[in-house]
Amino acid sequence: MIDTAYSRRYTPAPGDPYVETDPAEHYDGNLLDVAANLANAPTDWKRQAEEALRLAIESGNEFTTDELRDLGAPDLEVAKEQQAVWGSLVAAAKAQKRIERVGDRVSSRRSANGRRVAVWRKAAA
Length: 125
Fold this sequence. Notes:
- There is one protein chain.
- By secondary structure, the chain is of the alpha+beta class.
- The protein has one domain: Orthogonal Bundle (Arc Repressor Mutant, subunit A), CATH 1.10.10.
- Helix content is about 40%, strand content about 10%.
- It contains four helices and two strands, in the order H-H-H-H-E-E.
- The chain has helices at about 30-40, 45-60, 65-70, 80-95; strands at about 100-105, 115-120.
- A two-stranded antiparallel sheet has the order 1-2.
- Helix 1 packs across helix 4 (about 80-95).
């Protein structure tokens, strides 16, 4: 199980539907919030999510956070926390110029209820 005490340290992240409507690539806020979300995320989740992101980037294929989950990165128990850390993960990778957004598509996860998610790929060198 993922640390539920994380909710006490929650800071909204880019793409968090509870606080804003703009997707992560339009986020012009404070990247310190992104760093704080990632710093406060459960250690196991961070390790698994970063490894999944690395694999997705190295594949050269387009991907969404749905595919990162398929590569072994787990969801958190609380949806609000989950949005914050997933949004922060991709916002940080984008800020580091590791990935770039190429569009969006409907999420493959049934629990997303047809919500559109960002599609990413390895950033052009």
